[in-house]
Amino acid sequence: MSKLALMLALFSTLFCSCSPSLVEAEYLLSDGELACVSWIENDHLAVLLLPQAVVDGFATYSHSDPAMAVVQLVGLPSSNVRQASYDSLVSFGKLAVTLSATARGVPAGDVDAALCLEVLSEGASHLRKTFLADTLASITGQSDPFGMLETVKQATVFDLRTSLALSQNTDWELLRAHLKRYVEEIRRVQRKE
């Protein structure tokens, strides 16, 4: 189920319209296990997956709501912070997996986020005219969720859900500093490519 959650979050965040000219991030919080941050720099989409517990913990520490806390934690200006239900993410993820498995002729169990992204990228111009686009638009709130995917030349997922562990003694300022540094390194690589 975690693999499905990863793909769901990836594609929900991926299709929120990020602005390629400004480096602003789209933030997606779910009522489930993860929070997603995505941004585009030099036609390279980066998707950062965080445990929702980290966002909630930092929100408690900073006495702010999770929408503000995730922006403070990551350090990128926000173009949009959205909340999506876990059920809607699961529904879209199942559709994306089925589409990818059918398109490539592989079992659904062999479909990962990279394959889904590849299939959806290749078919973005055609998928813009389908009910899948309508389903995705209802999740993201965007009128043309596949439009952005056509402009992206490369996409990378950075899954930190198993890398960030919390304890009663979590140093939130140190965690925030390290996370901001991590994001800056990702952006540095994006600028070089």
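The record above closes out task 2.4. Task 2.5 opens with a second protein, given below.
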Amino acid sequence: MKKVKPVSVKTIVLGRTGKTVIHTPLAVSSNAAGSQLNQGTSSPITDAVDVDNVDVPVFSPDEAQHSTAQRRICNSVVNWEKVRDKLFMAAVEEESLPEKAVCVVCKQRESTVRCRYCGPRQFFCSTCAHDLHAERNQFHVLEQWKDNRFIPLFPNHGAIESGHSCSSRVLKMFKLIDAFGNQHLFEVPVCDCESHAVTLVRCQFWPGSPERPSVGFHFKLMDLAEKLFLHSQVSVKEFSELILEMTPPLQPNFSTDGCDLDTIRQWMDNEISEIVPREKDLSLQWDETYVELLVTASKLKTQIAYAKEEEPSQVDILERKMLRNERTIAGLEKKRGIRGRWQENDATFQIIQQRLTAKKQTNEVLRLHKMASERIFLLELKAKYAEGQAIAIKLSNQIDKVVNSMNQGLATLNGLMEDEVAAFEDIKDPGRKLYCELNCSNNTDNVPAGIKKKLVHLLFLEDRCKEEKTLVKEEMLRFFTFLFAQINAITSYLDRESANRGLMSLLQQKIDVYKKNLQLLTSMCKDLVAFPNFEEPEETYQLFSEVEVETPTDVENLYDFSLFEDLECHSTHFRGWNDEDFDQ
């Protein structure tokens, strides 16, 4: 008997949006009524078509308006949904070691190692896995079955040969990142015949630095990075984050940023300790204070003699200063038991004066160093704003004040220095030679000072972000409390006052708006702030299809026209109306 293929009905619908073609497949109904109607008959269509095996899409009236591409996408989604559970279970089953699995190489020993890079279901014993990956496939990440799970296995594969033999070569440990972003620790033989960067290139790895690198990146990974940079405009930061996301979480990261928050904070403490302890040690001792008072008394005597001849008005002021200074000297001599006043030509006086001058000079250098740092900070801050802005003008004025203070300190410093004379160029930058003793650090790390400064600034920024986060949480709670208070105030007003229906409707709408804002606030920030419970808002809108439509009612049943029949009213034409309008 000849089989008949399934057919469909082609319907062309002409509407305002244009012509639409609908293909409706004819499906055989398998319900009870259809079976009763077909009893005793044999149809070639039912014999040829297997309804259970043919995937016939069923369309609703709304889906009939969809295009062929939309229906194809819907059918694809449905078909994927059918196999979703099976795909999931298959993937889950492959994450365990099969029972009584035998090594695929020796076919004898029980397998305990898996290598997905070698192919699917490649299970090895420990011996075969090591032998297979000892001299080739060295960058395959093996997985060891342990405690009912697979963990990354990085066996000691030995050294990677670059093809260069030399009697002076030594093995150096490198952090090598393969084509998949996995990080490995491998020994590579290096020598003095060529640089370490060239040796890494021979091993198909791009060096991380031109001189004595410690990290290498596989050429295929660098090719991928180049294509992403040029084609997709992906930044280095995003590419690095992508590599970290692709790396399995159990795999170790040998190449880190080199420091953590504790290290950065230690750098901050070291930078502060370089200056603060010196300020404490530079406090004057009693003998240094005594010598300073004696030097001040000598200067005041000279100033008084000069003022008597040139500025008589300043004599009284200087004499009062001289009197206070003498009282302080007398009190110190009495306290320390000094019977005879020290003279400038005494050896003790000169030694203490040299020590005092050195301390004053160091104190002045420290003060200038702080002002130089402040000047650089203000200049960097001013560079962020355009000339003429109010904040830029304020910063310029502040810079001028700092520069004037530095010039005054420079004059004081030159007065303390006997052999050398410093200029403003020598003190304007914190990295100048004059501040070398202050900037010298005892740290043994190789992190550049500029990188340390950036990390310290980032740490400060993180601390400020935490403070801002706390403030935002408090602000959200205050906003929540405000909305809740507004709802309670309006609700209590509606319960207390008998307002008209219009006002009640507006107030109820206002309550709905506040509740909607509360719901939006809690949904957006529920992971950040624990909000109190509140009554969720009801529906604020309805679809037209959800509204119940009442049956048509005759107008005469709604309105009583008997009053008009009792009145003697004449037909009057209104402007803009005629009899034809009323007839319609």
